[in-house]
Amino acid sequence: MKEGIEYLDLILITIITIFFSLVGIAVHFIDIIYHLLSHYANLAIANFFRNFVFLYLIGLLWFAFRRWKQTERRKKELEEITSNINPDVLIVVDKNNRITMCSNAVERIFGYKVEEVVHQKFDIFYSDSLSAEWNDMQRVLEKSNLSIYRATGRKKDGTEFPLELTIGNLHFYGGSVVLLRDITETKMAEDRLQSAYKELNQIFNASADGICVIDTQYNILRMNETFKFLLGYRVENYDEKLCYKTFKCSRYLTPECSLQKILNGDSWFGCEIEFERMDGKRLFCIHKSIPFRNTEGKIIGVIESYRDISEGKDMEENLQNMSREATELVSGVRTATQIKELYDEIAKVKAELARYVAPPTMEIVEEMVMSKKIHTGELVNITVLFSDIRGFTSISENMNPDELFKMLNLYLSIQIKAVEEYSGTIDKLSGDEVMAVFSGPGMAENALKCAVAIINHLQEQQPAEGSDWIGVGIGINTGPAYLGPLGSESRKQFTHIGTTVNIAARLCGKAKKFEVLFGKTTRELVKDKAFNYRSTGNVPLKGLSAPIEVFQLIKLERE
Question: Alpha-carbon distance 408 to 199, whole Å?
Fold first, then answer.
């Protein structure tokens, strides 16, 4: 640290003047004592006393000078150490907003030498004058003695950068001490964190399932837009914070509560659950809960997901009611006209249900209803097609929920139409992902033609040349798979599972935008067909012990 030159000179002149005045008084005092001793005592004693006092004063002077030099050297070493190890600029500002002292770090951060900033206005370090802000800072300091601000700093060459100021009050001197810190890296990290938060928040709200986060005290921490829609909320904020007051459910505050299950040691919990919406309507959902942990791994709540199955539940109840009525009508020897009307009603229900359930599944459900037997699953040979959107986050970044759902419905309708055109069935829809199944003769060929049709239809929908539009990656695989019901006693879903399905899903994950990848078993069935493809070599896939050969369809044109 360095002081102003005029203050240092004034202090040195004052000290030297006082010192020599004291020396003059001491010499005069010694001379008086010398004359008294020489007059009343022996002259040798007087000379001894005078010489002793004189030499003693010289010794004191030398000792004081040596201690002063040591103190100055240590002070200088301490200032150099402080300047070298402290990355921040330490500044002392007087009450007139002028810099009186400054650390050497100012040259590294701002490009100024210490001599260039001493006696300058404090706003030399800012892109704009902060006289008004400085007055506000001083008023805050009068109450708190410490204040932290952020501003835009300005280097000597004009470069601007983010700056943090820590200001403390110097009541005795009537000024302030200021610590200036370059927070460029901190600001960049904050911007990256904010960007990542926005992306995660967008994905969170775009989920097809309702998601709710609850702490251990049953307080709602967060819910996504889908969950608000399921419950019937029309505003951003909700009045009640306690989950069992916000949405009514018979399981809450009981041993069957998902939060209690997780806190008691369960790794996850799932069931079918019934809610009451804000408008009083019933809502049936498939519910799943997993632990919500902090950075130390401690459980601080639960993350719950809800998938609406109300329409399917209503259709299932209608189908059961129709079947029960049919049994009663037949057993009561009803007339032929009544039986025909009953079967017409059942046909309408089946036609409506077919919009949500694949034909093979419908056949199994009908068989179960008629025979009253539990279907345990069977092994079938199929070709599986997986498709999902590439770059979904960037496409939906500026979309509101209405635009997003409109885009997804267009995307799904194109794929469903293509699947039906080539004799396939939809196994499941999960957000932007589609799983379709092809069976029977020509199943592999139909799956590849369906993939080509999907890509061609999506490219035709592109609004303008060069604009960002929906692009999909598609994975296809052929082989055996199990078809059967999965779920609990109260709710089951018919689907295909097995290694064949897993490989198709992994190939879909590997495929790039508008790329179709398929496995060796599919290639064996279409090698004599009019498809142009090439081998990409053996590719390792997650969950498989060894790599498999993968093929890429390289000619995507209509036949």
Answer: 18
